[in-house]
Amino acid sequence: MSGTNILGGQVILPGKATPETAHLHVSGERIEQVGKADPLGERIDADGLIVAPGIIDLGVFATDKPAFRFGGITRAALMPDQSPVHDDPATIRFAGRKGKPDFWVHPLAAATKDLDGQHMAEIALMKDAGALGVATGRRWIADSGVMLRLMRYCAMLDLPLFVHSEDAGLAGNAVATTGLNATLLGLPSASPTVETLAIQRDLALAAESGAHLHFRQVTTSAGLDLIRAAKYKGLGISCGITPAHLFLSDTALTGFRTFARLSPPLRSEEDRLACIAAVADGTIDVIASGHDPRGPEDKRLPFADAAPGMAGAETLLALTLNLVRDGHISMGRLFELLATNPAKILKVNAGAIEIGREADLIFIDPDAPWQVDSDKMAALAGNTPFDKLPVQGRVRKIMKGGKII
Amino acid sequence: MTSPPTASPGRFPAGSAAFPHRHLLGIAGLQPWEIEFILSEAEQWVALNRSGATKRDDRLRGLTIINAFFENSTRTLLSFEIAGKRLGADVVNMHVAQSSTKKGETLIDTAMTLNAMRADAIVIRHGSSGAVDLISQKVDCPVLNAGDGTHEHPTQALLDALTIRRRKGRIDGLVVTICGDILHSRVARSNMISLTTLGAQVRVVAPPALMPEGIASFGVEAFNNFDAALPGSDVVMMLRLQNERMQGDFIPSPREFFHLYGLDSRRLALAKPDALVMHPGPMNRGVEIASHIADDLERSAITEQVEMGVAVRMACLDILTRRARGVEGWS
Q: Which residues of chain B have pLDDT under 70?
């Protein structure tokens, strides 16, 4: 017996826009051959399926294995907003072991103690404990001095810093984006400038500190323009988005639907279209689920009192496949957004189908229809704003580290 | 004063088609004739309330109405209580501690508790926009919104419309200027929808920080300058500064606010000579409105608004319980 052969699948190969029929050979935990099979190996028939790198979900709020499994997510960067906050080496070490062996959690270290935005946490110790990045959590760090020192420290330690981009002073108690819908519903709202101000400041500090900033969610046209210009200048930054901001606008708040209560809040239709354009032109590097399962105690509340967040792990792939079907991006580009780029940011040896990479693979039936149903989700909670939406694309099989799970 | 219009047969769709809604959650979504229907029904209660000692009609006898107020209120609570009692219902007032309303399940639990007590109508005031809508999904009986956050206050808009209609004889074609804290005012939202639906030309006035986005989509004209908005106004409606909803400074001081947006004699002279002055109360005298204008019974309809409030709420309670009471045509 010599490893496993994956035969006849449509394989997503690095740099290729469309999948190509190719055999793969996996030995141990790694991809041994691409394009060739080993006659002595086990056989997995992948005929009719797309074979893609396992999705690396950059910035989830819960380790939710059933949901990740359903969604084809083989690794996830866990946000430090946990109870207790991941601001010391012990919690990082524990979180890093949580999903193994079939699922890997990459905990992100809290940038500040208890995510208070003021006192720097023990980032180097947490790096030694397994943290692959640092995050400000759901909150923006208001003190620019703290932020600059933090960025310099992260740059020294060669760790990416994940930032949330909402200027807290301007945002106030806003739960919606200013506009007709917020006014009609009488919801506290703030303009999209909340995001651009935050990005502008952090870009200035990033240029000074040399830190790798990852803007976890950029959701406005003006914010994306800033990112685009900064990248053009050669600043080492990256940015992400969730499907909610690509497929929903602030009209989804109608009827006080708390499943659409997100942070940052849903934007205007113009901003939504700008986000899709930014995915297409390469400004956006990552699409993540922002998986944040919330039970009824957090969501069955008046809109402004409800907790922000959505369960997104299960729907991430199916929703983003729409970007391919609608001709915005190629299948190859989709998996750069879902796997290759997140792997680069975390510096893990996965996220692409190449010789020597970890054999984290998913087998996708791209046309399989199903319906998102908040009552039947595998996730810890069914708080999806896409409830009852018909979608296409199911993960049929997952290989993690060379083993089918 | 013009004599009030009376409901004429055939003016509204028959039976429940005149008001086919289970709840009264807001003005948004109501058809013009549905608003007119409530106003016309309220007229009979104005007459009853002015009729002398026996201000009572027992059509709601045996029914239980719960006033669940999650937010402080005196006049609206009292108005709903009097309205229910004058119709013969058993009225229970429930003041819910502010601290408990922030806890999620408490609100749903409260709704389910109220439902289990088999109330026949529930009147709710809550500090969060959409809270009344949420509760209405959990109970079997009609729910009346007595103000939810900065969203809607439908009975206030209805009583304002009734006051205007009785004083001016019509609403269609009038110029109504609403001035003050538009951003935080559920009264302003409900009134903008109600008055434009009924054909009035509505102007809203506020400093930029208190003017919500997208206001033009309500079909109103927005002004930052009160003086510029007043000429031609048939009605000047002043709003209370809602300091409790403001995080941080929205205006430099009450004194400066009155300087720019307070209604005094000089400003009122810019409106039509017979312009009606309104205020939903409670008033901050010397901040939004000068005392002598508020107290001028010829110009000010402020106490009349309170009176119309009882009549409108009686109409709403009557209409919304007709189905449960088996009134002919309302099954």
A: 1-10, 97-105, 244-248
Highest CATH level, class, for B154-301: alpha beta
CA distance A235 to B162: 63
Residue ranges per structural domain of chain B: 21-153+307-324, 154-301
- Residues in chain A whose beta carbon is closer than 8 A to a beta carbon of chain B? 172-173, 178-189, 191, 255-256, 296-298, 300-306
Please state, in angstroms and rounded to a whole number, the distance separating the CA atoms of residues B188 and B176.
11
Q: How far is A226 from chain B (nearest CA, A)?
A: 24
Each residue's pLDDT tens digit, B201-249: 999 999 988 999 888 889 999 999 999 999 999 999 999 887 766 666 7
Class of domain A55-351+368-392: alpha beta
Task: Give ipTM to 2 decimals.
Answer: 0.77
Q: Spell out where A12-91 has E strands.
A: 20-27, 30-34, 42-45, 50-53, 55-60, 73-78
B125 annotated as belonging to a binding site for a ligand: yes
The residues with which B174 forms a beta bridge, in sequence order, are: none
Provide the pLDDT for residue B105. 55
- C-beta separation of B305 from B313 below 8 A: no
Kindly determine whether residue B213 and residue A182, on different chains, have CB atoms separated by under 8 Å.
Answer: yes
The domain B21-153+307-324: what is its CATH number?
A: 3.40.50.1370
* A vs B: CB pairs below 8 A: 85
Instruction: Give the bridge partners for A252, in sequence order.
Output: none
B248–A172 C-beta distance less than 8 A: yes
Q: What is the DSSP letter of A40?
A: T
State how far the Cα of B270 lies from the Cα of B236, in Å rounded to an integer: 11
**Long-range contacts formed by B204-208: CB under 8 A, 24+ apart:** B204/B177, B204/B178, B204/B179, B205/B177, B205/B178, B205/B179, B205/B180, B205/B229, B205/B261, B206/B179, B206/B180, B206/B181, B206/B182, B206/B261, B207/B250, B207/B251, B207/B257, B207/B260, B207/B261
**pLDDT given at position B250:** 81
Q: Cα angle vertex A237, ends A90, A222, to 5°?
A: 120
Residue A143 in tokens: 């003190």
DSSP code at position A376: G
Q: Is B21-153+307-324's fold the same as B154-301's?
A: yes
| Nearest CB neighbour to B128, from listed A178, A300, A304 | A304
According to DSSP, the β-strands at A55-60 and A73-78 are parallel
Q: Which chain B residue has its CA at the smallest distance from A188's CA?
A: B150
Residues of A in contact with B220 (CB under 8 A): none
Reduce the DSSP state of residue A308 to 3 states and report it. coil
Contact B105 A304 (CB under 8 A): no
